[in-house]
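On clarity, I found the account of how folds are encoded harder to follow than it need be. Since the whole study asks how a given chain folds, the encoding of that fold should be made plain. For illustration, here is how one protein appears when written out as sequence plus structure tokens:

:::
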Amino acid sequence: MKPASPLSINLASAPFRAERARNAALGAACVLAVISLAILATLIRGESQRASVLHSQIGALEARLLSVQREQARAQSVLAKPENADVFSQSVFLNELIARRAVSWSRVFDDLQTVIPYNVRLVSVRLPQAAPSESASTNHLQLDMVVGSDRQEAVVELLKRLEESPLFGYAVLLNQQPPTQNEPLYRYRISVAYVQKF
């Protein structure tokens, strides 16, 4: 009688597969995830350090602002005393005089000549009363002028030129008057910002 031959039994529930490539891809994905996490952690740490520097700078600026506000309150309390009111009003008056004397009217007329159309006539120009806070050292002025023209379109052209010029700013038409028997021109009162180049 022949001996029984050994049985070969495959106990695996699924046939053999090559999983080495899949494991390598998963490993590479895990390495990329760890590197991305490290980069994000570094960026977050850097942003938090910048935020703390900004907070400290803001704190220093707020402390400086409080100090300046205290100094301003002290100065205003001194100026508010009745015995100092005359000195304050006189200094405001003198500063306004200095500001007005610093204006070169020939330069004003030269600059206006570059923007006024040929069919618009400059009737008058003046500096309105300056605000007390306006510094005499600044060259930013507000001109109040009256112009005349027989055509309304010419004044519209003047307003456009004023706003396009680097020497003048936004122009506001304050009022207008129709022609009369004594004055055959339309009259327009215009307020415009003006920067005098020295």
Remarks:
- Strands lie at 121-126, 140-149, 168-177, 186-195.
